[in-house]
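> Could you send the Ral guanine nucleotide dissociation stimulator-like 2 prediction when you get a chance?

Sure thing. Input:
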Amino acid sequence: MLPRNLRTGGYDLPGVESSDVPLIGYRPLLSDSGTPSNQSRRGSGSDELETSQTDPSPMKTTWYCPLDLSTVVEEEEDGVIYTVVVKQQHGTPNSVTSAVSRSQCVKAGTEEKLVLHLLHSFAMGDSSFITIFLSTYRSFSCTGRVLDILTDRLENPPGENERSHIRQSFNRAVCTVFSTWLSEYPEDFKSLGEPSRLLRLAPLFPQDSSSAADLRARLLRIAEELSEKALLPDSQRDQSGFTSPLPDASKFEPTCILGFPAALIAEQLTKIETELFVRLVPYHCLGSLWSQRDKKGREGVCWSVRATIRQFNKLANAVLASCLWPTNLRSQQRARLLEKWISVAEECRARKNFSSLYAIVSALQSNPIHRLRKTWQETDREAVRRYEELSEIFSEKDNYSQSRELLKEEGTSKFANIDNRINNKHFNRSNAQGTVPYLGIFLTDLTMLDTAVKDRLDNGYINFDKRRREFEVLAQIRLLQSSCKNCVFTSDEAFTQWYQSVPTLTEEHSYRLSSEIEAPGEPSPRGLTPTVIITQCR
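Output:
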């Protein structure tokens, strides 16, 4: 949905956020003949229209704001509701012949009409529609259904008796839609399962266009890949590409983590997180998809989000295992492990790796470590102070407001803004860093949005305004991904081997080890509340 001040030409209507500008009246736009006027809904968003055009469509209600000649209306045509902004260029509201500029965007519509609007959106001034639709359509449709609707339309293109500019505009729209789709979401086509839809679609592209020829070739290559994939046994089909070797607990040496510099550990963790985040498919975060992850038959859904969460939980588990596994350590020795992980968290902060930072903080706040009174008493006071400061970043106060503010400040900046924040510590700032966010914030936002806003209007139309709001969140993810795409890392084999050797601890096992270290019954001195890890994906 357009921001309210844009929809009303820069003024808020009464009863919303401001009462300074009163609504002074409304009336239908009248034609010269005295009948309600309804401008053409198929014109360009920048066309100059005459309000004297006639149309037998139902009356529109138009609101005027004083001091400005912009109006906003809603129009329904053939299965689509449009939000239309009309700006009067000359004359006054009482003039019936004044030229106006007009822009419009889809508010809601049927599934078929929303798909077909892909081919008309640019001509109608709704330039963002293609991007928003391709980012969110899986919440109300599927790839096969969208392809079927578009293919049916391509089989009946504008005929020879249509004006040439209409045919050219249609052909350009077809190429634009599929070029954007193939470039941004190639996995949609590769996940079709069988090639019949692509083989039907490819020959329908315009014959007199080099870009169309390229699209045909790309679709046919994907169709060939699908044909070859269909011949493979199920065990060899892996759409995610994410594999994780099983840990070898016999090789696990908990205290070996002390031998790695904190900066090296943070660099290796940032390498892992960045590679996962760049491969994250943003629409996998949509609330309507993520909320179905635990349903039977949906085990493979949102695989890129699951991979990110598995890494989050794996790191939190590594912190727990390294601190709890050696139950025979003295409190002073175990305190050095806590200090090491606090230093690693600081280095992650310097690299804007908020995902690993929160995983470490969550593990240190978890009950099995949180309750170790003697160990915390032996931990360096300055390290504890820095740990508490890092923990505040992920405070749930005001819906993670501090974490959101940091993402806004540092999301696309080259370096973390850490001056005078983390003990004035000097970090190596020779290389620019991307930003890896804590994904749980976006998952929460999209799940709450999906729950709070209806998918359909009362008349059954799909609520596309909701998709625009979802896209605003997805766009933030994609912007952060772009900051990570040029990051370069080197692997450290020794740390990788240690990290892969960490055994997986259950909650019960973790607490049992903690109880062996310090018997239950004594209150914990720590003031921070234990944090729950965002989700368990097995």
